[in-house]
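Box 3.1. Reading complex inputs
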Amino acid sequence: MLDRPRAGDWKIVCAYTGKALIGVGALHALPLATALACAEWASLVDFLAGLGATMAAGCAMALLGKTERKPSWMHGMVTGGISWLAVMVMAAIPYWLSGHYLSYLDAMFDVMSGFTTTGLTLVQDLDHLSVSLNMWRHLLTFVGGQGVIVLALSFLVKDSAGGYKLYVGEGKDERLFPSVFHTAKAIWKISLVYLGVGAAALWLAGLSIGLGPARAFLHGLWIYMAAWSTGGFAPMSQNILYYHSGLYEALTLVFFIVGSFNFALHHAVWSGNRREIYRNIETVSFATTMSLLALLGCRGLQRLGVYPDAVSLFRKGFYHLASAHTTTGYMTLYPRQLALEWGDLALLAMIAAMLVGGSACSTAGGFKGLRVGIIWKAVVQDTRRLLKPSSAVFTQGFHYHGERSLGEQQLRSAALIVIMYVAMFALIAMAGTACGYPFLDAAFEAASVTGNVGLSIGVTSAAMPAPLKLVYILGMWAGRLEFMAVLATIAFVAAALRGKRR
Amino acid sequence: MRGFRLAALLAAAACLAAAPDAALAADLMSPNAVSSSQLVEEAKRLDGASISFEGEVIGEAMPRRDGAWINVSDGAYAIGVWLPASELGKVRRFGSYRWKGDRLRVVGSFNRACPEHGGDLDIHARSVEVLEPGSPIEHGVPRERIAAAALLLAAGSLSFLLWRKRSRNSDESRPARD
């Protein structure tokens, strides 16, 4: 039986969760300024209420948990898990007050979807949303891509050793610099520089396709935020289809592919090491699985004659496969078209792409190209071993920011995460089927939830059963944090309820 | 007489053979009122048909070189409508946070996967009629909500000041981070 956590353990978790909430409270400044600038008074009141409640909760937790103790690995993991839930509850206030959600559960669903960069939504009447609420939706997904804890580490946490444990608890483990604070700031720097370039490019594209200057700017900013963070939110209900533009699709395609790459890869390229792009196991793995799955998906569409020509096949088939593989979730189709027109082969390719996902330590979800690459290398190594004399000695290496040799521990942890992703996918698909949805539809949506993708085949809607909404929230949370923090949180809470006294 | 019979027989056969085309032509000529759900769910059946679709125009018009895009929503889905430039002037108000857009009736041909527009599901409009002009949407703020927001803001501000004060005090007695 697990040891029951002491008051000191709760204090540490409470203190850092409070700081994450304070960080999210500070984020309200941007939609507040937008509401003021656009004279959206009803939204302004909603955001003031959200700001007040989040700050009050965050500061109260930080004060209650005030302690001089350093966080351990367990505290880092549990804080990672609990802070994402706390942030979901508090950041849903402006959503709920806006009247665009049927229940508080729906509002929390959208916050979790935004923060985990999933992109599934239960919002009602999206086409009449205020500018400030759209700013909030896209800001949440942009910040979620970098991480809630990364946000807190950048500005509010002052303990270096403990900071790294919190950082790992959020499902990231790359250090771009020896200091975790410098790493967190480098992640923000990379994201903000790309934001400037990407939003400007989409602004110009928006002007060229007939949007007015102000809307072209706002749409460019929001679409870039959600593309870079592989989030998939858009300000209009038709998602990217609203723009009816090949140029807009091409730009978003580039941005979400770039966004799905590891922050360490961006940092390496920025530091002049461009060869890393071609040699890195993750980019090689991504290029391979993307090509194979795109071929498979497009073959399925071609066989059924779904699209009349190669251009349409590329703009629909390849675009959606790339959107699925990078776990973005941008669509230029209606969800039901996938179910009614695409056929089993193309849908299976999409499901596989969603499960594989993007790169480790990026904004993307899925079980990641790095793990696929490691497992593939291990399969190759074992096959070679079978064909050689038993006395032969093998070493298998791979390139990942330098040459590395494949170790048993790396393989074990990669396989474990992949097994957990597949198990969660199966459980969520079963939950969908149990709620009465066809198996393929339930499996598609489960892959989208597990991989934090956001593509929908039509299952996700405000009308779906509340238990399924809860399952999807938990799935998005566990998928984003890559299970360890979630398992630690569950064990921590279970120990508090049933554990033995130390 | 035999020639006349043969000619009558051939004419009757031609009529029978042409009947489905005539029915299809009639279908194409008299537009069929459809909802957006029908357009998405029955896209294969309706592909190429002449249809009439009603809904609120949302967002903005996007003029292009040889026409313009608008998006029309009937509440279930918003559908892209490709308009001749001459028809665009009829549309005045687009749906947004502040406005309910004009309610339009669009008559045109439906494409499940338009070859001209990269495989988009769209309507190529022949004509657009404004059924009901757009109107402003009021966003009132109840007094109770303003009072609750003020209370929460006061609680948030006070707790923030208290937290900052405590943090500063403990910072003074701790070495700087790396």
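In summary: Residues 37 and 76 of chain B are 6 Å apart (CA to CA).
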